[in-house]
Specification:
The protein is an alpha+beta fold. It is built from 13 helices and 13 strands. Helix content is about 45%, strand content about 15%. The protein has a 5-stranded antiparallel sheet with strand order 4-5-6-8-7, sandwiched between helices. Strand 5 and strand 6 form a beta hairpin. Helix 2 packs across helix 4. The longest helix is centred in the middle third of the chain and has 21 residues. The C terminus is likely disordered. Bound molecules: adenosine-5'-diphosphate and magnesium ion. The site of adenosine-5'-diphosphate has 20 residues, from strand 4, strand 5, strand 6 and strand 8.
Length: about 375
Protein backbone atom coordinates (compact mmCIF):
# COMPACT_ATOMS: atom_id res chain seq x y z
CA UNK A 1 0.00 0.00 0.00
CA UNK A 2 1.30 3.39 -0.97
CA UNK A 3 1.64 5.95 1.78
CA UNK A 4 1.53 9.48 0.56
CA UNK A 5 3.44 11.62 3.01
CA UNK A 6 2.32 14.86 1.40
CA UNK A 7 -1.25 14.02 2.36
CA UNK A 8 -0.11 14.15 5.95
CA UNK A 9 0.14 17.89 5.82
CA UNK A 10 -2.71 18.72 3.47
CA UNK A 11 -6.02 17.80 4.97
CA UNK A 12 -8.51 20.35 6.24
CA UNK A 13 -9.28 20.61 9.92
CA UNK A 14 -12.89 19.61 9.20
CA UNK A 15 -11.88 16.50 7.27
CA UNK A 16 -9.55 15.54 10.05
CA UNK A 17 -12.23 15.92 12.70
CA UNK A 18 -14.57 13.74 10.67
CA UNK A 19 -11.87 11.12 10.08
CA UNK A 20 -11.16 11.00 13.81
CA UNK A 21 -14.90 10.56 14.40
CA UNK A 22 -14.99 7.63 11.97
CA UNK A 23 -12.14 6.01 13.88
CA UNK A 24 -13.89 6.57 17.17
CA UNK A 25 -17.15 5.15 15.82
CA UNK A 26 -15.34 2.10 14.41
CA UNK A 27 -14.62 0.87 17.90
CA UNK A 28 -18.23 -0.24 18.26
CA UNK A 29 -19.51 -0.29 14.69
CA UNK A 30 -18.19 -2.18 11.73
CA UNK A 31 -20.04 0.33 9.61
CA UNK A 32 -20.22 3.72 11.26
CA UNK A 33 -23.62 5.43 10.75
CA UNK A 34 -23.49 8.97 9.39
CA UNK A 35 -25.52 10.25 12.32
CA UNK A 36 -22.93 8.97 14.77
CA UNK A 37 -20.13 10.65 12.82
CA UNK A 38 -22.02 13.93 12.94
CA UNK A 39 -22.58 13.48 16.65
CA UNK A 40 -18.97 12.66 17.51
CA UNK A 41 -17.40 15.27 15.26
CA UNK A 42 -19.86 17.96 16.23
CA UNK A 43 -20.10 19.01 12.59
CA UNK A 44 -23.28 19.89 10.71
CA UNK A 45 -24.66 17.26 8.31
CA UNK A 46 -23.56 19.24 5.27
CA UNK A 47 -20.07 19.56 6.71
CA UNK A 48 -19.89 15.83 7.39
CA UNK A 49 -20.90 14.95 3.84
CA UNK A 50 -18.40 17.29 2.29
CA UNK A 51 -15.59 16.00 4.50
CA UNK A 52 -16.55 12.38 3.82
CA UNK A 53 -16.46 13.08 0.09
CA UNK A 54 -12.96 14.47 0.46
CA UNK A 55 -11.82 11.56 2.66
CA UNK A 56 -13.34 8.97 0.31
CA UNK A 57 -11.51 10.54 -2.64
CA UNK A 58 -8.26 10.19 -0.71
CA UNK A 59 -9.29 6.60 0.07
CA UNK A 60 -9.09 7.22 3.80
CA UNK A 61 -12.66 6.02 4.28
CA UNK A 62 -15.03 3.86 2.26
CA UNK A 63 -18.74 4.54 1.97
CA UNK A 64 -20.81 1.42 2.21
CA UNK A 65 -24.49 0.73 1.96
CA UNK A 66 -25.52 -2.32 3.96
CA UNK A 67 -28.99 -3.78 4.29
CA UNK A 68 -30.06 -1.35 6.94
CA UNK A 69 -28.23 1.93 6.53
CA UNK A 70 -25.56 3.86 4.71
CA UNK A 71 -22.38 3.99 6.69
CA UNK A 72 -18.70 4.62 6.53
CA UNK A 73 -15.75 2.38 7.13
CA UNK A 74 -12.24 3.45 8.00
CA UNK A 75 -9.83 2.00 5.44
CA UNK A 76 -6.32 0.81 6.17
CA UNK A 77 -5.20 3.98 4.40
CA UNK A 78 -7.22 6.06 6.83
CA UNK A 79 -5.83 4.21 9.82
CA UNK A 80 -2.27 4.62 8.44
CA UNK A 81 -2.94 8.31 8.00
CA UNK A 82 -4.13 8.74 11.57
CA UNK A 83 -1.10 6.93 12.96
CA UNK A 84 1.31 8.93 10.78
CA UNK A 85 -0.34 12.15 11.83
CA UNK A 86 0.06 11.23 15.49
CA UNK A 87 3.75 10.46 14.93
CA UNK A 88 4.18 13.75 13.07
CA UNK A 89 2.48 15.67 15.88
CA UNK A 90 4.76 14.05 18.44
CA UNK A 91 7.75 14.96 16.25
CA UNK A 92 8.62 11.30 15.97
CA UNK A 93 8.52 11.35 12.19
CA UNK A 94 8.64 14.07 9.59
CA UNK A 95 8.61 12.16 6.34
CA UNK A 96 7.76 8.74 4.98
CA UNK A 97 10.18 7.17 2.54
CA UNK A 98 10.42 3.89 0.68
CA UNK A 99 8.78 0.65 1.54
CA UNK A 100 11.52 -1.86 2.34
CA UNK A 101 9.50 -4.91 3.20
CA UNK A 102 6.16 -6.60 2.88
CA UNK A 103 5.48 -9.43 5.23
CA UNK A 104 2.40 -11.58 5.35
CA UNK A 105 1.02 -9.35 8.06
CA UNK A 106 3.01 -6.16 7.82
CA UNK A 107 4.41 -3.41 5.66
CA UNK A 108 7.79 -1.91 6.51
CA UNK A 109 8.71 1.66 5.60
CA UNK A 110 11.75 3.82 6.10
CA UNK A 111 10.72 7.07 7.77
CA UNK A 112 12.77 10.05 8.95
CA UNK A 113 12.60 12.72 11.60
CA UNK A 114 13.19 16.41 11.05
CA UNK A 115 16.97 15.96 11.21
CA UNK A 116 16.83 13.31 8.52
CA UNK A 117 17.60 10.46 10.91
CA UNK A 118 16.14 7.33 9.39
CA UNK A 119 13.95 4.90 11.28
CA UNK A 120 11.67 1.99 10.48
CA UNK A 121 7.89 2.12 10.63
CA UNK A 122 6.26 -1.28 10.85
CA UNK A 123 2.56 -1.30 10.00
CA UNK A 124 0.58 -4.34 11.09
CA UNK A 125 -1.86 -5.72 8.55
CA UNK A 126 -3.85 -8.44 10.21
CA UNK A 127 -6.76 -7.91 7.84
CA UNK A 128 -6.59 -11.08 5.84
CA UNK A 129 -7.21 -13.21 8.88
CA UNK A 130 -10.57 -14.59 9.79
CA UNK A 131 -11.21 -13.77 13.40
CA UNK A 132 -14.21 -16.01 13.79
CA UNK A 133 -12.21 -18.62 15.61
CA UNK A 134 -11.19 -16.36 18.44
CA UNK A 135 -14.79 -15.95 19.57
CA UNK A 136 -14.07 -18.22 22.50
CA UNK A 137 -11.90 -15.53 24.01
CA UNK A 138 -14.48 -12.84 23.64
CA UNK A 139 -14.50 -12.35 27.39
CA UNK A 140 -11.30 -10.45 26.96
CA UNK A 141 -12.75 -8.09 24.41
CA UNK A 142 -14.20 -4.89 25.73
CA UNK A 143 -17.96 -4.65 25.65
CA UNK A 144 -19.20 -4.10 22.12
CA UNK A 145 -15.74 -4.45 20.69
CA UNK A 146 -15.38 -6.74 17.71
CA UNK A 147 -12.22 -8.59 16.81
CA UNK A 148 -11.80 -6.40 13.76
CA UNK A 149 -8.68 -5.97 11.63
CA UNK A 150 -8.20 -2.62 13.32
CA UNK A 151 -8.32 -4.04 16.79
CA UNK A 152 -6.13 -7.05 16.06
CA UNK A 153 -3.55 -5.01 14.16
CA UNK A 154 -3.40 -2.49 16.97
CA UNK A 155 -3.00 -5.26 19.51
CA UNK A 156 -0.13 -6.75 17.51
CA UNK A 157 1.63 -3.37 17.39
CA UNK A 158 1.11 -2.75 21.11
CA UNK A 159 2.47 -6.19 21.87
CA UNK A 160 5.46 -5.81 19.58
CA UNK A 161 6.33 -2.45 21.12
CA UNK A 162 5.91 -3.70 24.69
CA UNK A 163 8.15 -6.72 24.09
CA UNK A 164 10.75 -4.75 22.16
CA UNK A 165 10.93 -2.28 25.03
CA UNK A 166 11.39 -4.90 27.72
CA UNK A 167 13.97 -6.77 25.64
CA UNK A 168 15.84 -3.58 24.81
CA UNK A 169 15.90 -2.50 28.44
CA UNK A 170 17.45 -5.82 29.36
CA UNK A 171 20.21 -5.51 26.80
CA UNK A 172 18.92 -7.99 24.22
CA UNK A 173 20.05 -7.30 20.65
CA UNK A 174 16.83 -5.79 19.26
CA UNK A 175 16.12 -2.49 17.51
CA UNK A 176 15.59 0.47 19.83
CA UNK A 177 11.83 0.99 20.12
CA UNK A 178 10.94 4.64 19.46
CA UNK A 179 7.18 5.12 19.36
CA UNK A 180 3.87 3.36 18.85
CA UNK A 181 0.44 4.46 17.71
CA UNK A 182 -2.51 2.35 16.65
CA UNK A 183 -1.22 -0.45 14.36
CA UNK A 184 2.23 1.08 13.87
CA UNK A 185 5.58 0.85 15.61
CA UNK A 186 8.53 3.16 15.00
CA UNK A 187 11.91 1.62 15.71
CA UNK A 188 15.57 2.00 14.99
CA UNK A 189 16.60 1.17 11.43
CA UNK A 190 19.10 -1.66 11.56
CA UNK A 191 21.62 -1.26 8.79
CA UNK A 192 22.07 -4.94 8.09
CA UNK A 193 20.86 -7.80 5.93
CA UNK A 194 18.61 -10.59 7.13
CA UNK A 195 20.49 -13.84 7.68
CA UNK A 196 18.41 -15.20 4.80
CA UNK A 197 20.39 -13.05 2.34
CA UNK A 198 23.81 -14.11 3.53
CA UNK A 199 25.40 -16.73 1.34
CA UNK A 200 28.74 -17.24 3.10
CA UNK A 201 30.03 -16.50 6.51
CA UNK A 202 33.55 -17.19 7.57
CA UNK A 203 32.53 -18.66 10.87
CA UNK A 204 29.13 -20.33 10.98
CA UNK A 205 29.95 -22.08 14.24
CA UNK A 206 30.34 -18.93 16.27
CA UNK A 207 27.20 -17.34 14.83
CA UNK A 208 25.32 -20.59 15.48
CA UNK A 209 26.40 -20.48 19.12
CA UNK A 210 25.47 -16.83 19.45
CA UNK A 211 21.98 -17.59 18.13
CA UNK A 212 21.48 -20.61 20.39
CA UNK A 213 22.71 -18.52 23.33
CA UNK A 214 20.12 -15.93 22.42
CA UNK A 215 17.32 -18.51 22.41
CA UNK A 216 18.51 -19.76 25.81
CA UNK A 217 18.82 -16.29 27.26
CA UNK A 218 15.30 -15.48 26.11
CA UNK A 219 13.93 -18.65 27.69
CA UNK A 220 15.74 -17.87 30.93
CA UNK A 221 13.85 -14.61 30.91
CA UNK A 222 10.59 -16.48 30.42
CA UNK A 223 10.30 -15.82 26.68
CA UNK A 224 10.17 -17.71 23.41
CA UNK A 225 10.42 -15.76 20.18
CA UNK A 226 8.15 -18.15 18.27
CA UNK A 227 9.39 -17.22 14.80
CA UNK A 228 13.15 -17.38 15.22
CA UNK A 229 14.14 -17.78 11.61
CA UNK A 230 16.52 -16.40 8.99
CA UNK A 231 14.07 -13.61 8.06
CA UNK A 232 13.82 -12.28 11.59
CA UNK A 233 17.52 -12.21 12.35
CA UNK A 234 19.48 -9.30 10.90
CA UNK A 235 23.25 -9.64 10.81
CA UNK A 236 25.38 -6.60 11.56
CA UNK A 237 28.79 -7.06 10.04
CA UNK A 238 31.42 -5.34 12.18
CA UNK A 239 34.32 -6.22 9.88
CA UNK A 240 36.18 -3.40 8.20
CA UNK A 241 36.41 -3.46 4.39
CA UNK A 242 39.98 -4.64 4.76
CA UNK A 243 38.95 -7.50 6.99
CA UNK A 244 36.19 -8.53 4.60
CA UNK A 245 38.68 -8.64 1.74
CA UNK A 246 41.06 -10.70 3.81
CA UNK A 247 38.26 -13.09 4.71
CA UNK A 248 37.34 -13.49 1.08
CA UNK A 249 40.94 -14.17 0.11
CA UNK A 250 41.23 -16.74 2.85
CA UNK A 251 37.95 -18.43 2.04
CA UNK A 252 39.38 -21.14 -0.18
CA UNK A 253 42.16 -21.88 2.22
CA UNK A 254 39.68 -22.10 5.06
CA UNK A 255 37.39 -24.44 3.16
CA UNK A 256 40.32 -26.74 2.44
CA UNK A 257 41.31 -26.70 6.08
CA UNK A 258 37.75 -27.48 7.20
CA UNK A 259 37.59 -30.36 4.71
CA UNK A 260 40.92 -31.66 6.00
CA UNK A 261 40.59 -31.09 9.73
CA UNK A 262 36.87 -30.60 10.22
CA UNK A 263 35.51 -28.05 12.65
CA UNK A 264 35.08 -24.36 12.24
CA UNK A 265 37.47 -21.47 11.80
CA UNK A 266 36.78 -18.00 13.04
CA UNK A 267 36.49 -14.76 11.16
CA UNK A 268 39.89 -13.33 10.40
CA UNK A 269 40.20 -10.46 12.80
CA UNK A 270 43.62 -9.80 14.23
CA UNK A 271 43.89 -10.25 17.96
CA UNK A 272 44.93 -6.61 18.36
CA UNK A 273 41.76 -5.55 16.48
CA UNK A 274 39.46 -7.42 18.86
CA UNK A 275 37.96 -4.59 20.88
CA UNK A 276 35.86 -5.28 23.95
CA UNK A 277 32.73 -4.48 21.95
CA UNK A 278 33.61 -6.99 19.26
CA UNK A 279 34.32 -9.62 21.84
CA UNK A 280 31.00 -9.00 23.50
CA UNK A 281 28.74 -8.60 20.46
CA UNK A 282 30.60 -10.79 18.04
CA UNK A 283 32.15 -9.74 14.77
CA UNK A 284 28.93 -10.77 13.11
CA UNK A 285 26.25 -9.48 15.46
CA UNK A 286 22.72 -10.84 15.21
CA UNK A 287 19.83 -8.44 15.82
CA UNK A 288 16.45 -9.99 16.50
CA UNK A 289 13.22 -8.47 15.13
CA UNK A 290 9.52 -9.31 14.79
CA UNK A 291 7.84 -9.91 18.15
CA UNK A 292 4.05 -10.07 17.81
CA UNK A 293 4.01 -13.86 18.18
CA UNK A 294 6.29 -14.15 21.23
CA UNK A 295 5.07 -16.44 23.98
CA UNK A 296 5.81 -17.03 27.60
CA UNK A 297 7.73 -20.13 28.67
CA UNK A 298 4.65 -20.76 30.83
CA UNK A 299 2.53 -21.23 27.70
CA UNK A 300 1.01 -24.71 27.48
CA UNK A 301 2.88 -25.42 24.23
CA UNK A 302 6.08 -23.63 25.21
CA UNK A 303 8.30 -26.64 24.61
CA UNK A 304 6.94 -27.07 21.09
CA UNK A 305 7.66 -23.44 20.18
CA UNK A 306 11.07 -23.52 21.81
CA UNK A 307 12.06 -26.65 19.89
CA UNK A 308 10.73 -25.21 16.67
CA UNK A 309 12.89 -22.07 17.09
CA UNK A 310 15.96 -24.21 17.78
CA UNK A 311 15.21 -26.51 14.86
CA UNK A 312 14.75 -23.57 12.50
CA UNK A 313 18.33 -22.46 13.11
CA UNK A 314 19.73 -25.99 12.90
CA UNK A 315 18.00 -26.62 9.58
CA UNK A 316 19.06 -23.29 8.12
CA UNK A 317 22.71 -23.68 9.15
CA UNK A 318 22.82 -27.17 7.78
CA UNK A 319 21.30 -26.19 4.42
CA UNK A 320 22.98 -22.87 3.89
CA UNK A 321 26.40 -23.23 5.51
CA UNK A 322 26.69 -27.03 5.66
CA UNK A 323 27.15 -26.58 9.38
CA UNK A 324 25.79 -29.23 11.69
CA UNK A 325 26.22 -29.56 15.40
CA UNK A 326 24.99 -32.06 17.91
CA UNK A 327 25.09 -29.28 20.49
CA UNK A 328 21.80 -27.49 20.85
CA UNK A 329 19.66 -26.39 23.77
CA UNK A 330 16.86 -28.57 25.23
CA UNK A 331 13.87 -26.89 26.78
CA UNK A 332 13.82 -29.06 29.87
CA UNK A 333 17.43 -28.45 30.79
CA UNK A 334 17.19 -24.74 30.07
CA UNK A 335 14.17 -24.43 32.35
CA UNK A 336 15.50 -26.77 35.03
CA UNK A 337 17.79 -24.41 36.89
CA UNK A 338 14.91 -21.96 37.23
CA UNK A 339 17.00 -18.81 37.09
CA UNK A 340 15.01 -16.02 35.54
CA UNK A 341 16.67 -12.87 34.37
CA UNK A 342 13.39 -11.00 34.66
CA UNK A 343 9.70 -11.77 34.81
CA UNK A 344 7.87 -11.33 31.56
CA UNK A 345 4.38 -11.19 33.01
CA UNK A 346 5.20 -8.42 35.42
CA UNK A 347 7.26 -6.31 33.06
CA UNK A 348 5.13 -6.57 29.96
CA UNK A 349 1.96 -5.99 31.95
CA UNK A 350 3.60 -2.93 33.49
CA UNK A 351 4.28 -1.62 29.99
CA UNK A 352 0.55 -1.57 29.25
CA UNK A 353 -0.06 -4.86 27.47
CA UNK A 354 -2.51 -6.88 29.48
CA UNK A 355 -2.65 -10.62 29.93
CA UNK A 356 -6.08 -10.72 28.28
CA UNK A 357 -4.75 -8.98 25.22
CA UNK A 358 -1.87 -11.40 25.10
CA UNK A 359 -4.21 -14.37 25.19
CA UNK A 360 -6.32 -13.04 22.32
CA UNK A 361 -3.29 -12.40 20.19
CA UNK A 362 -1.66 -15.71 21.01
CA UNK A 363 -4.76 -17.48 19.91
CA UNK A 364 -4.80 -15.64 16.59
CA UNK A 365 -1.07 -16.08 16.06
CA UNK A 366 -1.16 -19.78 16.60
CA UNK A 367 -4.08 -20.51 14.35
CA UNK A 368 -1.43 -20.80 11.71
CA UNK A 369 -2.18 -17.57 9.87
CA UNK A 370 0.71 -15.60 11.16
CA UNK A 371 3.42 -17.91 9.93
P1 LIG B 1 6.80 -9.50 9.45
O1 LIG B 1 6.04 -9.62 10.72
O2 LIG B 1 5.93 -9.11 8.32
O3 LIG B 1 7.65 -10.71 9.17
P2 LIG B 1 9.27 -8.14 10.19
O4 LIG B 1 9.29 -7.34 11.44
O5 LIG B 1 9.92 -9.46 10.24
O6 LIG B 1 7.77 -8.23 9.67
O7 LIG B 1 9.92 -7.26 9.03
C1 LIG B 1 9.94 -7.70 7.69
C2 LIG B 1 11.29 -7.36 7.05
O8 LIG B 1 11.54 -5.95 7.09
C3 LIG B 1 12.46 -7.99 7.77
O9 LIG B 1 12.74 -9.30 7.31
C4 LIG B 1 13.60 -7.03 7.49
O10 LIG B 1 14.18 -7.30 6.24
C5 LIG B 1 12.90 -5.68 7.41
N1 LIG B 1 12.97 -4.98 8.72
C6 LIG B 1 12.05 -5.03 9.71
N2 LIG B 1 12.42 -4.27 10.77
C7 LIG B 1 13.60 -3.73 10.45
C8 LIG B 1 14.51 -2.83 11.13
N3 LIG B 1 14.25 -2.35 12.35
N4 LIG B 1 15.65 -2.48 10.49
C9 LIG B 1 15.91 -2.96 9.25
N5 LIG B 1 15.11 -3.79 8.56
C10 LIG B 1 13.97 -4.18 9.14
MG1 LIG C 1 9.36 -11.38 10.02
Amino acid sequence: MKLDATDLRYISADSFRVLAAVEQGSKNHELVPLSLIAQISGARAGGVNKALGDLAKKKLVGKVQNAKYEGVRLTYGGYDFLACRTFAKRDTIYSVGNQIGTGKESDIYVVADQDGTQMVMKIQRLGRISFRSIKSKRDYLRKGQSASWMYMSRLAAIKEYAFMKVLHEHGFPVPTPIDQSRHCVIMELIDAFPLRQIAHIPSPGSLYSQLMDLIVRLARSGLIHGDFNEFNILIRDHRSEEEKDRDEENEEEREERIAREGGDFPVVVREEDMTEERKEKGVLEPVLIDFPQMVSTDHADAEYYFNRDVQCIRTFFSRRFKYESSIYPRFSSVMKDGVREFDLDVEVAASGFSKGERVILEEVSFLGFVF
